[in-house]
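Q: Sequence in, structure out?
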Amino acid sequence: MVEATFTLSNITLYGVSNIVIPSLQETWNSPCEKFSWKLLLPISLNGKPLKSCMSSLVPARNTSFQSFLNSSKEFPLANSSCPSKKPCGEVIYGTPLTLSLLLANKPNPSSVPIRRCHKAYQIRLQPTDAQKEHLEKTFGCTRYVYNHFLTRRKEVWEKETKTLSYSVCSKELTELKTQEATEWLKEVDKFALQNALRDLENAFSHFFKRVKKGKSGGYPHFRSKRKEQSYRTNLTNGNIEVSEGYLKLPKLGKVKYRQSQELEGRILSVTVKKTKSGKYLGSVVCEVEERVWEKTGKGVGLDWGLLSYLTTSEGEKVENHWKKYLKKLRKAHQDLSRKVKGSRNWEKARIKLSQVYESLGNVRRDRLHKLSRSLLERYDLICVETLKLANLVRNKRLSKSILDGAWGEFVEM
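A: Exactly. Output:
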């Protein structure tokens, strides 16, 4: 931040309530990103000089600094200590005014290192009834393709002791669309079905890596329609677009969404998900350019805790902010347990319970993202203690607090 002071002599006074200052184009030519300014007007009362009356003006939103300099500025002379919001005295004529500009200089783009990275924007979709029906059909088709080829790979492994690759499964999927019994697979987005095969391929590759390391578990499971449903589609030939609060998706058309933030960068893929409470969410992955953080030369160590979330080696403590949701969660579970399973009241209670879980998860993820971002901006080296959570959660009294902390999710961020 740079503070620049200018002396103004060619001013125009309108009574004692307004003042106009001329253009500053000839005085300041350096670009800046953020700016604010104050004007100090000398006044007197009964011939005795008093403290200068200060007046400030907040520029209009999206006003560039260049246009701010070019235009003349008119604003009231207000003093926060005066109830009348006017100068407490008379203006001293002939005395130059002082204009202070607080500027944030824009760095030279060529000197700032920039990196390309992938950034995901999560938005709330608001589909119509017809679009909801098509989304349900897409969820069902992707689930069918995943489970069908999981069964095929298991059968081939039991008979021939070999696995099917993604390319072989992709050819069989093309043949599956031509069969009369499964022609309905053509009605949905083809990229969603192909990505289901890629997810299955990734699941098996992760399983084989665990087997090589001598670990157990990790074998792919069948997908269930009672859990969260999702599918992923890719950008090809402009089949995905964002315009005026609408998201265009293949085979679905324009879907309205809540525009809580601007989507920047080049769109790569979109994942559509339906939560247990019935909400439709879209995760838009974009390729953006971000500035590389400057090196700070500092390091910090993190110690996990239960009373406080974590404590840094510098003595800073971070408290838990999601414990207040535990009472709501307990009450929602009690309400669900009192209802007859399968009834309408039971379904209403289930949705309320899902909403509480979603709120708790959103608060936790938001807090962890902000905390991890703050630590990465301040420190170059972050050391975290290695804990075996599988052994810690054996303690029945502490297991709930340990799992609520989501330490593993925080480390992955």
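Residues 344-378 form the longest helix (35 residues).
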